[in-house]
Design brief:
The complex is a heterodimer. Chain A is of the alpha/beta class. Chain A contains nine helices and eight strands. Chain A has a domain of 210 residues: LmbE-like (Rossmann fold), CATH 3.40.50. In chain A, strands 1-7-8-6-5-2-3-4 form an eight-stranded mixed β-sheet, sandwiched between helices. Chain A starts with 36 loop residues before the first strand and ends with a helix. About 9% of the residues of chain A have low confidence. Chain B is an alpha/beta fold. Chain B has a domain of 215 residues: Rossmann fold (3-Layer(aba) Sandwich), CATH 3.40.50.10320. An eight-stranded mixed β-sheet of chain B has the order 1-7-8-6-5-2-3-4, sandwiched between helices. Classes of the chains: A alpha/beta, B alpha/beta.
Chain lengths: 329, 322
């Protein structure tokens, strides 16, 4: 899984650029098309909230692959759970193309990791939908949407975390197919005439109201989440991805390689767990640190947020008119 | 639905091909009854099917009424809780605009279901005559869900292997229902259903319609006690199926200064009696072949476990203490 780098992707003040791609002033090395980011001129800044203000709310974190949520949203997921959410993990593919050994070895290894990620992030449950890895452009997306609608209703999901269906230059079909199905399912889950037969099991329409979208390529960002107090959970969720991903046990493997050369890196410590943890913290958290620096945080994650916390709805002006102009009968 | 006469000679039913799955009378699973032997299913006293669930699946308003209304009424009267699933929206049948047809067929489907005693009705509303273009995966997923949620034991629907079926809605419905019947018992298919407490549940018995001339059947059901319900269910099919032909005929004759005594003095009587006299002859003719007054025919599949398996019997006879 390749991560996106934010280092070259911002302007002072985060100005939204009209219709123009690219960031003026960005170093040429980072001015690649796939790394262009539009920052909203007034992004939502989400810091830690005291207490458990989200008690009773439910989120679903949807990933095509075992390492997507850990890489892009592990910190956010941990933060929301600490603040009261109940969280569920949906792994859409069977990950049969990314991992060690044969295809059979790979699916077993990734399955172990799905449950490990669930545990590290404190998620309630993990469900795997089993679509074949790297082949999702061949599925019936309407069936995937139907299954997601079922889960959104059965769990009463309020908030979704997943890939942005409008993230440009996404080369992995599993990502954009999943994202399209999620987006459609979010609003359709609230429709009474969509899959009314679910009522046979007492499942009622329930629309998803908030979405935190992440992306690998060009994306519109309007939400910065402070994950400084959740970096430990974020790192540990990435450590859980041993079968695939840039994290996992790469630290232990580096320590072992250096040892064979008669060397060591002090940050990797004296055991595998320490090596893996600090490998991730030292080498894989650059984006989170860079983004955090821009917004006065130690670590941050960026999202395209859609929901009531950030809306340009015209409804307030309608209410404003009503308030000003209503008269007695 | 375009109807063809279902009249066929009994010899056709006797010329069946021995099923490769029928390993003899002691086979406890009896997967596929030999199509050459026709079993007569008669009225059963009491409520022998109490606690069991029936799902009747049709593509169009008038499918169940013509192909199996008597049998559905019989099974429900004998104790089944019955549910009806209509898979298309019938937009192409009714004489009005597509929207008007959707509405009229929807309304009449509910009325027809009530006549036959169904407890509830589900509609999938796939576009009429276009069901060979839909996602069979999604369609099947929905049927699997319903089978599990309702805990369906027995299904009545189209034979997916029935030759000569020109209507894609029919064979698509039949195919998907057949797949869903066994898949609904598999725990690794749609495991997320457990999140709503909906558990795997296989369908054990199937009654497949004889939809077109020449399709196989191995079961003839005596519907003599249920013919009035069948007639009335057809009479409810006014958007399609001829259910309002009687009243239309009465009106036409009246304009000519004529009347037919059998059509009575009101529309409901005219519709019902027209059905009785002109639209159900083949069920009477089928019945005659089996010394019944009225009958419907099916290709019946019984996958219930019958007694002990051979392994269990062998263990009983040969196991010894260690």
């Amino acid at each position: 899984m390749e991560r996106r780098r934010f280092i070259g992707g911002s302007l002072a003040g985060g100005a939204l650029i009209g219709g123009t791609l690219g960031m003026t002033g960005a170093p040429p090395a980072y001015a690649k098309q796939s790394n262009h980011i539009w920052f909203d001129d007034d992004p939502l800044i989400e810091r830690d909230q005291p207490g458990r203000p989200y008690e009773g709310k439910v989120f679903a974190a949807i990933q095509p692959h075992a390492d997507d949520i850990p890489i892009f949203a592990g910190g956010l997921a941990a933060k929301l759970i600490k603040e009261g959410y109940k969280g569920y993990l949906i792994n859409v593919t069977n990950d049969d193309h990314a991992g060690p050994g044969t295809v059979g070895d790979t699916v077993v290894a990734n399955e172990i990791d799905w449950y490990a990620v669930q545990k590290e992030l404190g998620l309630e449950k993990m469900i795997c939908l089993g679509y074949r890895n790297h082949r999702m452009e061949d599925i019936d997306i309407i069936e995937l949407k139907a299954r997601l609608i079922f889960l959104f209703r059965a769990w009463k999901v309020d908030t979704v975390i997943g890939y942005d269906p409008w993230g440009h230059y996404e080369e992995n079909p599993d990502h954009y197919i999943t994202a399209q199905a999620v987006e459609a399912a979010c609003w359709m889950a609230g429709g009474g005439k969509d899959y009314p037969e679910l009522s046979a099991a007492g499942i009622k329409p329930h629309g998803v109201r908030e979405k935190y979208y992440h992306a690998r390529g060009t994306q519109y960002i309007n939400c910065i989440v402070d994950i400084s107090n959740h970096i430990d959970a974020h790192i540990r969720s990435n450590m859980a991805n041993i079968a695939q991903g840039p994290a996992g046990n790469h630290g232990a493997r580096l320590r072992e390689r250096l040892a064979k050369e008669g060397k060591k890196l002090p940050i990797l410590g004296n055991n595998d767990e320490t090596a893996n943890y600090h490998y991730i913290k030292q080498f894989l958290m650059e984006d989170e640190k860079a983004l955090g620096r821009k917004f006065g945080m130690e670590y941050a994650q960026a999202f395209h947020y859609i929901g009531p916390k950030k809306t340009d709805s015209y409804t307030p002006s309608m209410q404003d008119y009503i308030d000003k102009n209503t008269v007695s009968l | 639905m375009d109807r063809q006469s279902l009249f066929r000679k009994a010899a056709l039913g006797g010329a069946g091909i021995a099923s490769a799955f029928n390993t003899g009378p002691r086979d406890v699973h009896a997967y596929r009854a030999d199509v050459g032997e026709v079993v007569i299913e008669r009225d059963q006293p009491g409520k022998p099917h109490r606690g069991k669930v029936l799902l009747a699946v049709h593509a169009h308003l008038d499918d169940i009424p013509y192909y199996s209304a008597g049998t559905c009424a019989k099974l429900i009267n004998e104790g089944y809780t019955g549910y009806l699933l209509r898979t298309s929206n019938d937009e192409k049948c009714g004489g009005g605009s597509d929207s008007e047809n959707i509405k009229s067929n929807e309304t009449e489907n509910l009325k027809m279901a009530k006549v036959l005693g169904f407890s509830d009705v589900f509609d999938f509303y796939y576009r009429n005559h276009r069901m060979n273009n839909i996602s069979s995966q999604e369609f099947r997923a929905r049927v699997v869900f319903l089978i599990r949620a309702l805990k369906v034991d027995t299904v009545v629907s189209f034979n997916p292997w029935g030759h000569g079926e020109e209507n894609p809605d029919h064979w698509m419905t039949g195919r998907v229902v057949e797949e869903a019947c066994w898949m609904s018992g598999m725990p690794n298919d749609y495991p997320e259903h457990l999140e709503a407490g909906v558990k795997p549940h296989p369908v054990r018995e199937r009654y497949y319609f004889v939809g077109r001339r020449g399709q196989p059947f191995n079961r003839v059901v005596d519907i003599g006690s249920y013919i009035e319900q069948k007639i009335q269910s057809i009479a409810e099919c006014k958007s399609q199926g001829g259910g309002n032909t009687g009243s239309l005929l009465r009106a036409r004759l009246a304009k000519q200064g004529k009347k037919l005594e059998i059509l009575g003095n009101d529309d409901a009587t005219a519709d019902r009696e027209y059905v009785r006299h002109f639209l159900v002859d083949e069920y009477r003719e089928l019945g005659k072949q089996y010394s019944l007054e009225w009958a419907e025919q099916f290709y019946y599949i019984d996958q219930r476990r019958q007694g002990k398996s051979r392994v269990d019997e062998y263990i009983e006879q040969h196991a010894v203490n260690k």
